[in-house]
């Protein structure tokens, strides 16, 4: 998008030169999620899988170069992707950042009817649905039609599970309000009451 800059190293968004929070940052600021503190191996593996999928969808992946440690997840992705109709496999956006000027986000992949989020886990977290609501809100406010949010779990055994959360995003405004509440100092909200002591 014009005037939107994403810094992949710091994972920060800037719109017209000013920082705007990302979807994940909004969820962390609202205390709904927290910074991942698990094994960095799984973080790096997830990034590698996402990158392989991104290259595949852009038609630039050499599958011979895939590391053995991500082949099961990539095989799971291929099984899922190949199961879709030809129309559903027409990509609108791949890892494209969006913003409405208030917050920003980068969906993994967007087709004409669906926003896809790839997960290298057997059971994703419930709050991931809210992440999808943020993406849906962004695309809708940027003039794109309503799209379903689908999380695709890519398992270690080469299988997958796809979970469709529909197209509603009615809870996202609440996330932004809770984030604002957490980020507002108490002194700006609270007023002291009672009589002064003599």
Protein described:
- There is one protein chain.
- By secondary structure, this protein is of the alpha+beta class.
- It has a single domain, classed as Lambda Exonuclease, Chain A (Alpha-Beta Complex), CATH 3.90.320.
- The chain contains six helices and ten strands.
- The chain is globular, with a radius of gyration of 19 Å.
In short:
This protein is of the alpha+beta class. 35% of the residues lie in helices and 20% in strands.
Q: What attributes does this structure have?
A:
five-stranded mixed sheet; 10 strands; 198 residues; 20% strand; alpha+beta; globular; three-stranded antiparallel sheet; 6 helices; Lambda Exonuclease, Chain A
What distance lies between the first and last C-alpha atoms, to the nearest angstrom?
Answer: 61 Å
| Uncertain residue segments | none
Order of helices and strands, N to C?
EEEHHHEEEEEHEEHH
Q: Report the sheet-strand fraction.
A: 15-25%
CATH class term: Alpha Beta
Q: Which structural class do you get from the secondary structure elements?
A: alpha+beta
In CATH terms, what is the architecture?
A: Alpha-Beta Complex
User: What's the main sheet like?
Assistant: 5 strands, mixed
**Oligomeric nature of the chains:** single chain
| Overall pLDDT metric | 91
Total domains = 1
Largest sheet, order of strands side by side? 4-7-8-9-10
Mass-distribution shape: globular
CATH-defined topology = Lambda Exonuclease, Chain A
Proportion in helices: 25-40%
Strand tally, please?
10
């Amino acid at each position: 998008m014009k005037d939107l800059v994403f810094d992949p190293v710091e994972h920060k968004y800037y719109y017209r030169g000013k920082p705007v929070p990302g979807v994940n940052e909004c969820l962390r600021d609202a205390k709904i999620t927290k910074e991942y503190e698990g094994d960095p191996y799984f973080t790096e593996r997830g990034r590698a899988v996402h990158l392989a999928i991104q290259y595949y969808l852009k038609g630039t992946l050499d599958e011979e170069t895939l590391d053995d440690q991500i082949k099961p997840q990539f095989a799971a992705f291929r099984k899922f992707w190949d199961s879709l109709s030809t129309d559903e496999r027409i990509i609108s956006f791949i890892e494209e950042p969006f913003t409405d000027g208030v917050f920003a986000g980068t969906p993994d992949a967007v087709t004409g009817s669906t926003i896809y989020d790839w997960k290298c886990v057997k059971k994703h977290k419930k709050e991931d649905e809210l992440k999808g609501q943020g993406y849906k809100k962004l695309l809708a406010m940027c003039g794109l039609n309503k799209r379903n949010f689908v999380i695709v779990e890519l398992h270690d055994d080469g299988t997958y599970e796809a979970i469709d959360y529909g197209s509603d995003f009615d809870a996202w405004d609440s996330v932004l309000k809770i984030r604002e509440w957490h980020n507002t100092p108490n002194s700006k909200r609270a007023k002291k009451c009672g009589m002064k002591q003599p």
